[in-house]
Design a protein that fits this description.
Bound molecules: pyridoxal-5'-phosphate
Strand content: 5-15%
Number of strands: 13
Order of helices and strands: HEHHHEHEHEHEHEEEHHHEEHEEEH
Shape: globular
Distance between the termini: 40 Å
Oligomer: single chain
Largest sheet: 7 strands, mixed
Helix content: 25-40%
CATH class of the largest domain: Alpha Beta
């Protein structure tokens, strides 16, 4: 007798070299958590570390902790811990502020790095909205024209007037992985800068910032990096650009000698030029602690498991869910897929509410997309099979089909 999907799931979990990482997270066995691409799960050791930060570093050492507990240098130190996960050598990433704020620094910074006669900034038409809003403002402030286009069309659109392009590495809605090496190469060949947003790729797949010659990048840390709600984002400025990088937010933390408190600004060298004001230390140290789960983890293994999980989930959906009820928006080709599966479903709001009530937590992107994020550090194959079965059960109770939408 051939193996059932459930049996195969249990076998794949037993063979999975990353399976034991799940124990490092505060997760219960009743819930299948498929929303780690929106808010990563809590690593189990973080509460004890935060209790120490609050009671000892803040409560007892107080002001001394800026120095003795390493608070002041946390933005660069934590940047160096994120660096290997996104393929960057040390000294190019600084942590702090939200992704939105870092998009602003990166786009204005890119515009200022480019030649005066380049008056266009290209922006990904499928971008997460905040990037587009901020880029439009950055373009207006720097006297550039914003051109919105599909990432696949960038290589043909880039030309002598292009200053830079801002692209999302993975489309937050469909899970499509963009061609970072190819688009970056096309931009650079035309003398333009490549600015990438890694929110939905960092921690899920290899990025290769240095290898592919990316100029600037930003990303958040509360999705696949599990830093906690509102944990600070990061900014990557390639070493070759650091000396000329002119931050639009030159706060005192990025001054060459911040405690001299001089009236004139003089930018610090290196990645910390991307700092602004006093860092949000509690969130930052929660992130630093959360990054411990990556010790000894190879991002290539994470990618292999991510693809196997999303393949398997799609297979389970095809097997369990009647034809026509859902349609995958996520590319089938591995080279074009991030770490989530997006299913279009006419009854998506009611279906997701019922799935969550049954302990299968994905999310909804209005009006009609069911999103299931697969975080390889703590999601297994049995979870994927259970989620597909729950989806089929719910759809059997919610009438309708795709044609009714
Ligand atoms: C999640 C996400 C953001 C979030 O920005 P915040 O400033 O942290 O709210 C930005 N861009 C992309 C592509 C995202 O996926």
């Amino acid at each position: 007798m051939s193996e059932t999907l459930r049996e195969r799931a249990l076998r794949l979990d037993a063979e999975d070299p990353l399976a034991k990482l799940r124990e490092k997270f505060a997760l219960d066995d009743e819930t299948v958590y498929l929303d780690g691409n929106s808010l990563g799960a809590l690593p189990a050791h973080v509460p004890a570390r935060m209790a120490d930060v609050i009671t000892r570093e803040w409560g007892q050492l107080r002001i001394r902790s800026w120095d003795e507990s390493g608070w002041w240098t946390a933005p660069e130190r934590i940047g160096d811990r994120i660096a290997p996960l996104v393929g960057a050598a040390a000294g190019q990433i600084v942590v702090g502020d939200s992704t939105s704020v870092n998009v602003f620094k990166a786009v204005v910074g890119a515009a200022r790095l480019s030649a005066d006669d380049r008056d266009e900034i290209l922006v990904d038409a499928t971008t997460f909205p905040t990037d587009g809003y901020i880029a439009e403002s950055a373009a207006r402030l720097t006297g550039h024209r914003m051109v919105v286009l599909d990432p696949a069309d960038i290589p043909d659109a880039v030309g002598p007037r292009t200053a830079a392009a801002l692209v999302n590495h993975v489309d937050y809605r469909t899970g499509r992985l963009q061609d970072l090496p190819g688009i970056t190469a096309a931009l650079r060949a035309a003398g333009a800068l490549a600015v990438w947003d890694l929110c939905h790729s960092a921690g899920a797949l290899p990025v290769g910032l240095d290898e592919h010659g990316v100029d600037l990048a930003v990303g958040c840390t509360y999705k696949y990096l599990n830093g906690g709600p509102g944990s600070p984002a990061y900014l990557y400025v390639a070493e070759r650009h650091q000396a000329a990088f002119d931050s639009p937010l030159p706060g005192w933390n990025s001054h060459a000698d911040p405690f001299a408190m001089t009236p004139g600004y003089r930018a610090a060298d290196g990645a910390l030029r991307g700092r602004v004001g006093t860092p949000d230390i509690l969130s930052m140290l929660a992130l630093e602690s959360a990054l411990d789960v990556w010790d000894g983890v190879d991002i290539e293994d994470v990618r292999a498991k991510s693809l196997a999980l999303t393949d398997f989930f799609l297979e389970c959906v095809r097997e369990h869910v009647p034809a026509g009820r859902v349609e995958s928006l996520t590319p089938g080709a591995h080279a074009e897929r991030g770490s989530q599966v997006a299913l279009r479903c006419a009854e998506a709001p009611a279906v997701m509410a019922e799935l969550i009530a049954r302990g299968v937590v994905g999310d909804l992107r209005r009006p009609d997309v069911l999103r299931f994020g697969f975080t390889p550090l703590y999601v297994g194959f049995a979870d994927a099979e259970r989620a597909a079965r729950a989806l089929a059960d719910v759809l059997a109770e919610v009438p309708g089909d795709l044609l009714s939408s």
